[in-house]
Write a structure and sequence with these properties.
Four Helix Bundle (Hemerythrin (Met), subunit A); two-stranded antiparallel sheet
Length: 225
């Protein structure tokens, strides 16, 4: 594999910048979720999750605008995207729950299963996508098998908004988040066909993200402070 960058391994260009930003947002979200000197802020973790979701929605389209992409460049982009997705939509969401003080012993296996199912889903997608694209006239992918992990950026904030309607440490809050993690974990690995979003669907998804983000900001400014 020949890399045009003689001083650093990897690829550094605008085609991967959104993927890198998604990881940065995820790390920031993890740090705020688990807390520090001023305590845990899972609400900021959810906002960072939304940011990662926006970055992931457009990183593929941005990468395809680069002309004369090499095979190595394309393969690197695919691998780095899956690795970043594991952090942004596997580990970071689990830390949001932990930051909500859902940290009793019976939640730890739930987080482990959630991250493991996300890992399995990403690895399976990489294998099937490589086999699919190796075929002649493979065309554009029309559907996914199982729920893509990036959908966590839409689903988990909804569970979060419902959960915070209940008091901290309440059965209601615990039940909502537990249901969310287990349902998403199952959806990652259960075999069903999910249509791939086109431009119209992507715009609708961005609108949903905007509504969720607005709700979170309102709660932060008008309720929690």
């Amino acid at each position: 594999m020949k890399n045009t960058n003689k001083k650093l391994v990897g690829f550094y260009h605008y085609g991967v910048i959104l993927t890198y930003l998604s990881v940065v947002a995820a790390i920031v979200g993890i740090c705020f979720s688990v807390g520090g000197n001023k305590g845990a802020r899972p609400d900021i973790g959810v906002i960072c999750l939304l940011i990662s979701g926006v970055c992931d929605a457009f990183d593929g389209a941005v990468a395809k605008t680069r002309k004369n992409r090499t095979r190595e460049d394309r393969m690197f982009g695919e691998r780095i995207d899956s690795l970043s997705d594991l952090i942004a939509f596997g580990v970071a969401p689990a830390m949001i729950g932990f930051g909500m003080r859902l940290n009793r012993w019976y939640f730890l296996p739930v987080y482990a299963v959630f991250v493991l199912c996300a890992l399995i889903r990403l690895a399976y997608f990489d294998v099937t996508e490589e086999l699919r694209t190796s075929e002649e006239n493979c065309g554009r992918r029309l559907y996914y098998e199982g729920l893509p992990v990036t959908n966590v950026a839409f689903a988990l904030p909804i569970f979060y908004l419902v959960a915070i309607m209940f008091a901290p440490h309440s059965i209601g809050r615990n039940a909502v988040m537990l249901t969310g993690y287990l349902a998403l974990s199952a959806a990652f690995v259960i075999r069903f066909k999910m249509p791939k979003l086109g431009i119209k669907g992507l715009l609708i998804a961005m609108g949903i993200l905007g509504v969720i983000l607005g709700a979170l900001l309102y709660i932060n400014l008008a309720v929690l402070r």
